[in-house]
Design a protein that fits this description.
Blueprint lengths: L1 H10 L3 E2 L23 E2 L2 E2 L1 H5 L7 E2 H17 L5 E2 L4 E2 L8 E6 L7 H14 L7 H4 L1 E2 L29 E4 L4 E5 L2 E6 L2 H5 L7 H4 L7 E6 H4 L3 E3 L4 E3 H13 L7 E13 L2 E12 L2 E2 L8 E3 L4 E2 L4 E5 L7 E4 L6 E7 L1 E2 L2 H11 L6 E16 L5 E15 L4 E8 L5 E6 L2
Parallel strand pairs: 1-18, 5-24, 6-24
Antiparallel strand pairs: 2-3, 4-23, 7-22, 7-25, 8-9, 9-10, 10-11, 11-21, 12-15, 13-14, 15-16, 16-17, 16-20, 18-27, 19-24, 20-21, 24-25, 25-26, 26-27
Length: 421
Protein backbone atom coordinates (compact mmCIF):
# COMPACT_ATOMS: atom_id res chain seq x y z
CA UNK A 1 0.00 0.00 0.00
CA UNK A 2 1.52 3.33 -1.09
CA UNK A 3 -0.09 5.19 1.81
CA UNK A 4 1.76 2.90 4.19
CA UNK A 5 4.98 3.46 2.24
CA UNK A 6 4.52 7.23 2.48
CA UNK A 7 4.04 7.11 6.24
CA UNK A 8 7.00 4.73 6.59
CA UNK A 9 9.17 7.04 4.53
CA UNK A 10 8.22 10.13 6.49
CA UNK A 11 8.99 8.39 9.75
CA UNK A 12 12.20 6.82 8.49
CA UNK A 13 15.47 7.89 10.07
CA UNK A 14 18.19 7.33 7.49
CA UNK A 15 21.09 5.32 8.85
CA UNK A 16 24.36 7.12 8.25
CA UNK A 17 27.44 4.91 8.39
CA UNK A 18 30.64 6.92 8.44
CA UNK A 19 33.60 5.03 7.09
CA UNK A 20 31.40 2.39 5.46
CA UNK A 21 33.49 -0.07 3.48
CA UNK A 22 31.32 0.08 0.36
CA UNK A 23 33.84 2.53 -1.11
CA UNK A 24 37.46 1.51 -0.82
CA UNK A 25 39.02 3.86 1.73
CA UNK A 26 42.51 2.36 1.33
CA UNK A 27 42.87 3.84 -2.16
CA UNK A 28 42.26 7.38 -1.01
CA UNK A 29 45.77 8.74 -1.42
CA UNK A 30 46.83 6.46 -4.22
CA UNK A 31 44.99 7.44 -7.38
CA UNK A 32 44.16 10.46 -9.50
CA UNK A 33 40.43 10.04 -8.88
CA UNK A 34 40.71 11.24 -5.27
CA UNK A 35 38.90 14.38 -4.20
CA UNK A 36 41.64 17.02 -3.84
CA UNK A 37 39.63 20.03 -2.69
CA UNK A 38 36.98 20.30 0.00
CA UNK A 39 33.60 21.07 -1.50
CA UNK A 40 31.76 21.54 1.80
CA UNK A 41 33.01 24.21 4.19
CA UNK A 42 31.52 25.97 7.20
CA UNK A 43 30.18 28.60 4.81
CA UNK A 44 28.52 26.03 2.55
CA UNK A 45 29.19 24.46 -0.83
CA UNK A 46 32.44 25.67 -2.40
CA UNK A 47 32.21 25.94 -6.17
CA UNK A 48 35.93 26.79 -6.37
CA UNK A 49 36.73 23.62 -4.43
CA UNK A 50 34.45 21.65 -6.72
CA UNK A 51 36.13 23.04 -9.84
CA UNK A 52 39.48 21.98 -8.38
CA UNK A 53 38.24 18.38 -8.48
CA UNK A 54 37.14 18.32 -12.12
CA UNK A 55 38.36 15.21 -13.92
CA UNK A 56 40.80 16.15 -16.67
CA UNK A 57 39.90 13.32 -19.08
CA UNK A 58 36.45 14.49 -20.14
CA UNK A 59 34.77 14.63 -23.52
CA UNK A 60 32.46 17.19 -25.14
CA UNK A 61 28.81 16.21 -24.63
CA UNK A 62 27.87 16.70 -28.26
CA UNK A 63 30.76 14.52 -29.39
CA UNK A 64 30.03 11.88 -26.74
CA UNK A 65 26.38 11.71 -27.74
CA UNK A 66 27.46 10.36 -31.14
CA UNK A 67 29.46 7.48 -29.61
CA UNK A 68 27.31 6.74 -26.54
CA UNK A 69 25.27 3.88 -28.03
CA UNK A 70 28.39 2.05 -29.22
CA UNK A 71 30.20 2.62 -25.93
CA UNK A 72 27.20 1.44 -23.91
CA UNK A 73 27.04 -1.76 -25.95
CA UNK A 74 30.78 -2.25 -25.51
CA UNK A 75 30.52 -2.04 -21.70
CA UNK A 76 28.26 -5.11 -21.68
CA UNK A 77 31.11 -7.32 -22.83
CA UNK A 78 33.95 -5.36 -21.24
CA UNK A 79 35.75 -6.96 -18.30
CA UNK A 80 35.62 -5.07 -14.98
CA UNK A 81 36.99 -6.56 -11.78
CA UNK A 82 33.97 -5.69 -9.62
CA UNK A 83 31.21 -4.85 -12.09
CA UNK A 84 28.95 -6.97 -14.31
CA UNK A 85 27.00 -5.11 -17.02
CA UNK A 86 26.15 -8.08 -19.22
CA UNK A 87 22.38 -7.54 -18.84
CA UNK A 88 22.40 -3.77 -18.30
CA UNK A 89 19.68 -1.58 -19.84
CA UNK A 90 20.80 1.90 -20.88
CA UNK A 91 18.75 5.08 -20.91
CA UNK A 92 18.95 7.43 -23.86
CA UNK A 93 21.71 10.01 -23.72
CA UNK A 94 20.27 13.54 -23.63
CA UNK A 95 20.48 15.86 -26.62
CA UNK A 96 22.26 18.65 -24.77
CA UNK A 97 25.46 20.59 -25.31
CA UNK A 98 26.14 21.51 -21.68
CA UNK A 99 25.50 20.43 -18.11
CA UNK A 100 25.29 22.61 -15.02
CA UNK A 101 25.86 22.47 -11.30
CA UNK A 102 22.90 24.14 -9.62
CA UNK A 103 21.86 25.28 -6.17
CA UNK A 104 18.25 24.52 -5.25
CA UNK A 105 16.49 26.97 -2.95
CA UNK A 106 15.43 24.82 0.01
CA UNK A 107 14.07 27.81 1.89
CA UNK A 108 11.50 28.67 -0.76
CA UNK A 109 8.74 30.52 1.03
CA UNK A 110 5.62 32.41 0.17
CA UNK A 111 3.70 35.01 2.12
CA UNK A 112 0.41 34.24 3.77
CA UNK A 113 -1.43 36.25 1.11
CA UNK A 114 0.36 34.34 -1.67
CA UNK A 115 -0.59 31.07 0.02
CA UNK A 116 -4.26 32.07 0.09
CA UNK A 117 -4.04 33.15 -3.55
CA UNK A 118 -2.49 29.84 -4.66
CA UNK A 119 -5.14 27.80 -2.87
CA UNK A 120 -7.94 29.93 -4.33
CA UNK A 121 -6.48 29.51 -7.82
CA UNK A 122 -6.14 25.74 -7.41
CA UNK A 123 -9.70 25.40 -6.14
CA UNK A 124 -10.98 27.52 -9.03
CA UNK A 125 -9.15 25.25 -11.46
CA UNK A 126 -11.09 22.33 -9.98
CA UNK A 127 -14.39 24.20 -10.38
CA UNK A 128 -14.76 25.39 -6.78
CA UNK A 129 -15.16 29.19 -6.89
CA UNK A 130 -17.10 29.79 -3.71
CA UNK A 131 -15.29 27.88 -0.98
CA UNK A 132 -15.74 29.43 2.45
CA UNK A 133 -12.06 29.87 3.33
CA UNK A 134 -12.94 31.43 6.69
CA UNK A 135 -14.18 27.99 7.65
CA UNK A 136 -12.07 25.65 5.52
CA UNK A 137 -8.56 27.18 5.30
CA UNK A 138 -6.32 25.85 8.08
CA UNK A 139 -2.64 25.84 9.00
CA UNK A 140 -0.50 22.87 10.05
CA UNK A 141 2.87 24.64 10.22
CA UNK A 142 2.62 25.48 13.92
CA UNK A 143 2.82 29.24 13.39
CA UNK A 144 -0.72 29.57 14.79
CA UNK A 145 -0.18 27.00 17.51
CA UNK A 146 0.06 23.25 17.57
CA UNK A 147 -2.90 20.95 17.05
CA UNK A 148 -4.02 19.30 20.25
CA UNK A 149 -5.40 15.78 20.35
CA UNK A 150 -9.00 15.51 19.12
CA UNK A 151 -8.92 19.14 17.98
CA UNK A 152 -8.88 20.63 14.49
CA UNK A 153 -5.92 22.56 13.12
CA UNK A 154 -6.33 26.32 13.64
CA UNK A 155 -8.18 28.30 10.97
CA UNK A 156 -6.23 30.95 9.06
CA UNK A 157 -8.44 33.77 7.82
CA UNK A 158 -9.36 35.10 11.26
CA UNK A 159 -5.65 35.18 12.25
CA UNK A 160 -3.91 35.79 8.93
CA UNK A 161 -2.00 38.84 10.18
CA UNK A 162 -0.17 36.52 12.58
CA UNK A 163 1.00 34.29 9.72
CA UNK A 164 4.50 34.91 8.41
CA UNK A 165 4.24 32.22 5.72
CA UNK A 166 1.77 30.40 3.51
CA UNK A 167 3.67 27.14 3.93
CA UNK A 168 1.43 24.76 5.86
CA UNK A 169 -1.88 26.21 4.64
CA UNK A 170 -4.42 23.60 3.52
CA UNK A 171 -8.05 22.81 2.81
CA UNK A 172 -9.34 19.25 3.02
CA UNK A 173 -12.95 18.12 2.66
CA UNK A 174 -14.73 15.23 0.99
CA UNK A 175 -14.94 17.26 -2.24
CA UNK A 176 -11.46 18.78 -2.55
CA UNK A 177 -8.03 19.09 -0.96
CA UNK A 178 -5.05 21.44 -1.44
CA UNK A 179 -1.87 21.74 0.65
CA UNK A 180 1.07 24.15 0.40
CA UNK A 181 4.63 23.16 1.30
CA UNK A 182 8.04 24.19 -0.03
CA UNK A 183 6.80 27.48 -1.41
CA UNK A 184 4.12 25.96 -3.63
CA UNK A 185 1.34 23.41 -3.88
CA UNK A 186 2.55 20.06 -2.56
CA UNK A 187 -0.67 18.13 -3.06
CA UNK A 188 -4.16 18.54 -4.46
CA UNK A 189 -7.23 16.41 -5.11
CA UNK A 190 -10.56 17.11 -6.77
CA UNK A 191 -12.07 14.17 -4.86
CA UNK A 192 -12.97 12.20 -8.01
CA UNK A 193 -11.79 8.83 -6.69
CA UNK A 194 -13.31 9.33 -3.23
CA UNK A 195 -16.70 10.19 -4.73
CA UNK A 196 -16.58 7.37 -7.29
CA UNK A 197 -15.97 4.86 -4.50
CA UNK A 198 -18.62 6.58 -2.34
CA UNK A 199 -16.19 7.02 0.50
CA UNK A 200 -16.84 9.41 3.39
CA UNK A 201 -13.12 10.10 3.84
CA UNK A 202 -11.24 13.30 2.97
CA UNK A 203 -10.28 14.01 -0.64
CA UNK A 204 -6.59 14.10 0.34
CA UNK A 205 -6.67 10.29 0.42
CA UNK A 206 -6.80 10.37 -3.39
CA UNK A 207 -3.52 12.31 -3.51
CA UNK A 208 -1.86 9.91 -1.06
CA UNK A 209 -2.62 6.97 -3.33
CA UNK A 210 -4.79 5.19 -0.76
CA UNK A 211 -7.13 3.84 -3.45
CA UNK A 212 -4.51 2.99 -6.09
CA UNK A 213 -3.21 -0.23 -4.53
CA UNK A 214 -4.92 -2.69 -6.86
CA UNK A 215 -2.19 -2.46 -9.50
CA UNK A 216 -2.89 -4.30 -12.74
CA UNK A 217 0.42 -3.64 -14.46
CA UNK A 218 3.00 -0.93 -14.91
CA UNK A 219 6.39 0.14 -16.16
CA UNK A 220 7.97 2.65 -18.50
CA UNK A 221 5.49 4.98 -20.22
CA UNK A 222 7.39 4.34 -23.45
CA UNK A 223 6.60 0.62 -23.12
CA UNK A 224 2.94 0.95 -22.14
CA UNK A 225 2.13 4.07 -24.19
CA UNK A 226 -0.20 2.43 -26.71
CA UNK A 227 -2.17 0.45 -24.14
CA UNK A 228 -5.65 1.81 -23.48
CA UNK A 229 -7.87 1.45 -20.41
CA UNK A 230 -11.38 2.61 -19.56
CA UNK A 231 -11.16 5.56 -17.20
CA UNK A 232 -14.19 7.15 -15.55
CA UNK A 233 -15.24 8.92 -18.76
CA UNK A 234 -13.74 7.02 -21.72
CA UNK A 235 -11.00 4.73 -23.00
CA UNK A 236 -7.69 6.59 -22.95
CA UNK A 237 -4.21 5.46 -23.95
CA UNK A 238 -1.35 5.73 -21.50
CA UNK A 239 0.61 8.03 -23.84
CA UNK A 240 -2.32 10.44 -24.25
CA UNK A 241 -2.84 10.61 -20.51
CA UNK A 242 0.91 11.08 -19.94
CA UNK A 243 0.99 13.92 -22.46
CA UNK A 244 -1.90 15.60 -20.67
CA UNK A 245 -0.05 15.30 -17.34
CA UNK A 246 3.09 16.75 -18.91
CA UNK A 247 1.21 19.78 -20.25
CA UNK A 248 -0.57 20.22 -16.90
CA UNK A 249 2.68 20.51 -14.94
CA UNK A 250 4.61 22.43 -17.60
CA UNK A 251 2.10 25.26 -17.19
CA UNK A 252 3.14 25.52 -13.54
CA UNK A 253 6.85 26.06 -14.29
CA UNK A 254 8.12 29.65 -14.06
CA UNK A 255 11.66 28.76 -15.24
CA UNK A 256 11.58 28.18 -19.01
CA UNK A 257 14.62 25.89 -18.68
CA UNK A 258 12.64 23.44 -16.52
CA UNK A 259 10.05 21.14 -18.07
CA UNK A 260 8.31 17.92 -17.05
CA UNK A 261 9.03 14.30 -17.89
CA UNK A 262 6.68 11.37 -17.23
CA UNK A 263 8.89 8.26 -17.10
CA UNK A 264 6.75 5.57 -15.48
CA UNK A 265 3.15 4.51 -14.91
CA UNK A 266 1.17 2.09 -12.79
CA UNK A 267 -2.31 1.11 -13.97
CA UNK A 268 -4.72 0.40 -11.13
CA UNK A 269 -8.34 -0.76 -11.07
CA UNK A 270 -11.30 0.92 -9.36
CA UNK A 271 -14.37 -1.34 -9.49
CA UNK A 272 -14.99 -1.77 -13.26
CA UNK A 273 -12.84 1.23 -14.25
CA UNK A 274 -9.13 2.07 -14.22
CA UNK A 275 -6.78 4.86 -13.27
CA UNK A 276 -3.20 5.84 -14.07
CA UNK A 277 -0.59 6.64 -11.43
CA UNK A 278 2.19 8.56 -13.17
CA UNK A 279 5.65 9.30 -11.78
CA UNK A 280 6.54 12.95 -12.42
CA UNK A 281 10.06 14.39 -12.62
CA UNK A 282 11.78 17.55 -13.79
CA UNK A 283 13.93 18.04 -16.87
CA UNK A 284 16.53 20.82 -17.02
CA UNK A 285 17.69 21.94 -20.46
CA UNK A 286 17.01 18.50 -21.91
CA UNK A 287 18.50 16.40 -19.09
CA UNK A 288 16.07 14.42 -16.91
CA UNK A 289 16.16 14.47 -13.13
CA UNK A 290 16.45 11.20 -11.23
CA UNK A 291 13.20 9.93 -9.72
CA UNK A 292 12.34 7.42 -7.03
CA UNK A 293 9.41 6.11 -5.02
CA UNK A 294 8.85 6.17 -1.29
CA UNK A 295 10.65 3.52 0.76
CA UNK A 296 13.43 2.77 3.23
CA UNK A 297 17.08 3.33 2.39
CA UNK A 298 20.50 3.37 4.02
CA UNK A 299 22.79 6.28 3.08
CA UNK A 300 26.54 5.76 3.33
CA UNK A 301 27.95 9.22 3.90
CA UNK A 302 27.28 12.64 5.35
CA UNK A 303 24.79 13.59 2.67
CA UNK A 304 21.24 12.86 1.56
CA UNK A 305 20.29 11.87 -1.99
CA UNK A 306 16.96 13.49 -2.86
CA UNK A 307 15.42 12.35 -6.14
CA UNK A 308 12.18 13.78 -7.50
CA UNK A 309 9.25 11.99 -5.83
CA UNK A 310 5.87 12.94 -7.22
CA UNK A 311 2.77 10.94 -8.15
CA UNK A 312 -0.03 12.25 -10.39
CA UNK A 313 -3.33 10.37 -10.61
CA UNK A 314 -5.49 10.38 -13.74
CA UNK A 315 -9.01 8.93 -13.82
CA UNK A 316 -10.43 10.92 -16.74
CA UNK A 317 -9.00 12.19 -20.02
CA UNK A 318 -9.42 15.88 -19.16
CA UNK A 319 -7.14 16.68 -16.23
CA UNK A 320 -5.02 15.47 -13.32
CA UNK A 321 -7.40 14.42 -10.56
CA UNK A 322 -4.86 14.38 -7.74
CA UNK A 323 -1.14 14.61 -7.08
CA UNK A 324 1.33 14.65 -4.22
CA UNK A 325 5.02 15.47 -4.17
CA UNK A 326 7.50 18.26 -3.82
CA UNK A 327 6.90 21.62 -5.41
CA UNK A 328 8.97 21.25 -8.59
CA UNK A 329 8.96 24.96 -9.41
CA UNK A 330 11.71 25.67 -6.90
CA UNK A 331 14.24 28.35 -7.84
CA UNK A 332 17.45 26.96 -9.39
CA UNK A 333 20.65 29.03 -9.36
CA UNK A 334 23.40 28.12 -11.84
CA UNK A 335 26.79 27.77 -10.11
CA UNK A 336 28.74 26.58 -13.15
CA UNK A 337 28.19 25.25 -16.65
CA UNK A 338 30.44 22.90 -18.61
CA UNK A 339 30.50 21.33 -22.06
CA UNK A 340 32.56 18.29 -21.13
CA UNK A 341 31.67 15.19 -19.07
CA UNK A 342 33.16 11.85 -18.08
CA UNK A 343 31.77 9.20 -20.40
CA UNK A 344 30.11 6.01 -19.18
CA UNK A 345 33.18 3.82 -19.59
CA UNK A 346 35.32 6.37 -17.76
CA UNK A 347 32.82 6.41 -14.89
CA UNK A 348 32.78 2.62 -14.74
CA UNK A 349 36.57 2.54 -14.53
CA UNK A 350 36.47 5.03 -11.67
CA UNK A 351 33.76 3.03 -9.90
CA UNK A 352 35.60 -0.24 -10.46
CA UNK A 353 38.68 1.25 -8.84
CA UNK A 354 36.93 3.01 -5.97
CA UNK A 355 34.59 0.25 -4.78
CA UNK A 356 35.71 -1.94 -1.89
CA UNK A 357 37.74 -5.01 -2.81
CA UNK A 358 35.09 -7.47 -1.62
CA UNK A 359 32.21 -5.85 -3.52
CA UNK A 360 30.75 -7.42 -6.65
CA UNK A 361 28.02 -5.40 -8.32
CA UNK A 362 25.63 -6.45 -11.09
CA UNK A 363 24.42 -3.30 -12.85
CA UNK A 364 20.83 -3.49 -14.16
CA UNK A 365 20.29 0.05 -15.49
CA UNK A 366 22.39 3.09 -16.38
CA UNK A 367 21.09 6.59 -17.12
CA UNK A 368 22.46 10.13 -17.34
CA UNK A 369 20.52 12.43 -14.96
CA UNK A 370 20.54 15.38 -12.61
CA UNK A 371 20.04 14.71 -8.90
CA UNK A 372 20.06 16.95 -5.80
CA UNK A 373 22.39 16.13 -2.92
CA UNK A 374 21.62 17.66 0.47
CA UNK A 375 24.64 18.53 2.60
CA UNK A 376 24.56 19.50 6.26
CA UNK A 377 25.86 23.05 6.66
CA UNK A 378 26.29 24.09 10.27
CA UNK A 379 23.59 23.41 12.83
CA UNK A 380 20.11 22.49 11.55
CA UNK A 381 20.82 23.81 8.05
CA UNK A 382 21.02 22.02 4.73
CA UNK A 383 22.18 23.03 1.28
CA UNK A 384 20.88 21.37 -1.87
CA UNK A 385 23.32 21.10 -4.78
CA UNK A 386 22.25 19.50 -8.06
CA UNK A 387 24.97 17.66 -9.98
CA UNK A 388 25.00 15.84 -13.34
CA UNK A 389 25.34 12.12 -12.66
CA UNK A 390 25.59 8.70 -14.18
CA UNK A 391 22.88 6.84 -12.24
CA UNK A 392 23.54 3.11 -11.84
CA UNK A 393 21.06 0.68 -10.31
CA UNK A 394 22.10 -2.83 -9.42
CA UNK A 395 22.51 -5.65 -6.95
CA UNK A 396 25.38 -6.38 -4.59
CA UNK A 397 25.99 -9.99 -5.60
CA UNK A 398 27.50 -10.79 -2.21
CA UNK A 399 24.37 -10.08 -0.18
CA UNK A 400 21.62 -9.57 -2.83
CA UNK A 401 21.01 -6.03 -1.58
CA UNK A 402 19.72 -3.44 -4.05
CA UNK A 403 21.99 -0.44 -4.55
CA UNK A 404 21.74 2.88 -6.36
CA UNK A 405 24.94 4.71 -7.24
CA UNK A 406 25.33 8.29 -8.44
CA UNK A 407 28.71 9.00 -10.04
CA UNK A 408 29.40 12.68 -10.67
CA UNK A 409 29.87 13.15 -14.44
CA UNK A 410 32.31 16.04 -13.88
CA UNK A 411 34.46 14.87 -10.95
CA UNK A 412 33.84 11.11 -10.59
CA UNK A 413 32.76 11.54 -6.96
CA UNK A 414 30.55 8.65 -5.78
CA UNK A 415 27.27 8.91 -3.79
CA UNK A 416 25.15 5.85 -3.06
CA UNK A 417 22.50 4.17 -0.96
CA UNK A 418 21.07 0.70 -0.51
CA UNK A 419 17.33 0.22 -0.48
CA UNK A 420 14.51 -2.26 -0.04
CA UNK A 421 12.12 -3.36 -2.75
Amino acid sequence: MRYTKIITFLLLICITLNGCNTVDQSEKSKNRFDKKEKIITEEGFSISGYKGNLESERIAMREYGKKYAAEAKDTQSKSYSKLDLSDCRYGEFPQADTVSVLREDLESDISADEGVSQIKSCLKGMGYDNVDLKKELKDCSGQLGEKKQDEEWPTVMDQIKKCKSGNGFFVNTNQYAVQILGGGIYSMSDGSITRFLQKKSKASMDALGVYSDNIVTGGAVQTFGNQSYKLFDRDTTVKDAAKMVQVYFNKKMSDHNVTTDIPQVEIFSLKDKYGYDFFVRRKYKGVNFAFADYGGRNVYGEYEIVEDMKHAYVVNNKTVSAYAGQNQDMRLNVLMEDRKIIGLNGILQILDKKMAQHLRLKIDTAEFVYCPIHFNIGKNKKESIIFPFWQLDGININNEQSMRIYADALTGEIYLYTYYI
